Amino acid sequence: MLKLDMALPTHTTKEYPDLSHLPHVVIIGGGFAGIAAARGLAGKKVRVTIIDKHNFHTFLPLLYQVATAMLEPAEVAYPIRTIFGKANNVGFRHAKVREVVHARNVVVLEDGVEIGFDHLIVATGATAAFFGIPGASQFAMPLYSLADARKLRNRLLISLEEADASSETSPMSLNFVIVGGGPTGVETSGALSELIRTVIKRDGLRIDPSRVRVMLVDMAPRLLTPFPEKASDYAKRELERMGIEIEFGRSVVEVEERAIRFADGERLKVAAVVWAAGVTASGTLAHDLQTTSGPGGRVRVMPDLRLLESENVWAVGDAAAVPLGETEFCPQLAPVAMQSGRHCAEQVLRVLSGEPTKPFAYRNKGIMATIGRHAAIAKLPGGTVVKGTPGWLAWLGLHLWYLVGFRNRLRVMINWTWRYFDWPSGPRLIVADAETAE
Length: 438
Ligand SMILES: Cc1cc2nc3c(=O)[nH]c(=O)nc-3n(C[C@H](O)[C@H](O)[C@H](O)COP(=O)(O)OP(=O)(O)OC[C@H]3O[C@@H](n4cnc5c(N)ncnc54)[C@H](O)[C@@H]3O)c2cc1C
Hints:
Elements: E1 24-28, H1 32-41, E2 47-52, E3 56-58, H2 63-67, E4 77-79, H3 80-83, E5 90-94, E6 97-101, E7 106-109, E8 114-116, E9 119-122, E10 127-128, H4 136-139, E11 141-142, H5 146-166, E12 174-179, H6 183-201, E13 212-218, H7 229-241, E14 245-248, E15 252-256, E16 259-262, E17 267-269, E18 272-275, E19 279-280, E20 299-300, E21 313-315, E22 320-321, E23 323-324, E24 328-329, H8 334-352, E25 367-371, E26 375-379, E27 385-387, H9 388-402, H10 406-421
Parallel strand pairs: 1-2, 1-9, 2-5, 9-21, 11-18, 12-13, 12-18, 13-14, 20-22
Antiparallel strand pairs: 3-4, 6-7, 7-8, 10-19, 15-16, 16-17, 23-24, 25-26, 26-27
The structure holds flavin-adenine dinucleotide.
Flavin-adenine dinucleotide (FAD) binds next to helix 1, strand 2, helix 6 and helix 8.
């Protein structure tokens, strides 16, 4: 799993040699960016500590499949300690970082413990953006962590059970509203529609399909705006074929516990509002690192990824406004996170060995989104769009390739193959504690 340049002991039990003489690199966040940075530093002459509030790395692009009961949480997450099990110079601390004190080169954990660093890499990602819409952060359901996905799965499955229970007396209607027509909104609405079809067909839930509405709403005039218009039209046609109602130019003005209100005055009773309207770094640790933050609350960094006016604090991935040319910034995507994490590790090593740093250059790997179980669209780096089954196969291969852990890859591949043909079962479990988990 780890490719190390420096000869490291090959024994399976991790040893704890005294590395206190080596420069200490602290990485906050074990997402795509933090893991890539740590991989770049594993086996080098530095002591690395990854700090994360979760003890696992989450493969965010597949969260929607956990939320819609296609995959188990453990299939899209992997313990950070296991990833670096054989790298003796990489340690892990399970904690939430509260603050960074630049003047003293320390990070302060939630419990007040301070950890000193020679170099700090901030890779804390982003969070759901609610744009100050009343009730949205309280009642809408974002999809940004494994706990979010489990909560949403519970809500969806509980709503379907409620509808079944009501079928004998007064059958209830179920409205699911997905806010945001980007990749997450498109993928979630497609998978949700398939979940509903499956529970009716396979689990015998007594739900009249004509009483269930899955609506995808967006303020924009089309879906998947980073894709060409033809690809957006294709996605719309595919979703509509699955029975999803798509409404453009609709803005949400309030979310209530079981209702949503639009700017045109319509108030709709809902079983769940899935929030896929965008991300922000505001409200995260990264946002508080500077007095003036960059676009989307992100940290402003120099071309080499060091914070403006800092010698030894770096920011990567979704947390950072990574420059793209003179005036633009990189999108908040997994390839940017991985590449910036890797680049940052190289630059830290360059600084430590007295060499000048190099600017980050993003290599565009394209973008993709799935629409249900058999279709996807992929925009390749040159701009070519692949759709339908070839797009779906490309999506499948890429996601399996980047999923951490051989066992996870194997299990996900078996699950997908199984469901491609029939989808007879799935982890449709309502786990009570998910409502209270963070
Ligand atoms: C639902 C969803 C679907 C997506 N789909 C795609 C896709 O298909 N393709 C694509 O390219 N990109 C996709 N993305 C975007 C991609 O996942 C992100 O760009 C990428 O995860 C960013 O990596 P990161 O390491 O910067 O942040 P993250 O992956 O978010 O990791 C941040 C880490 O920091 C930790 N952390 C945060 N704050 C603290 C703190 N104070 N103390 C300790 N730990 C902390 C978190 O626990 C987390 O582990 C998707 C994102 C989401 C949410």
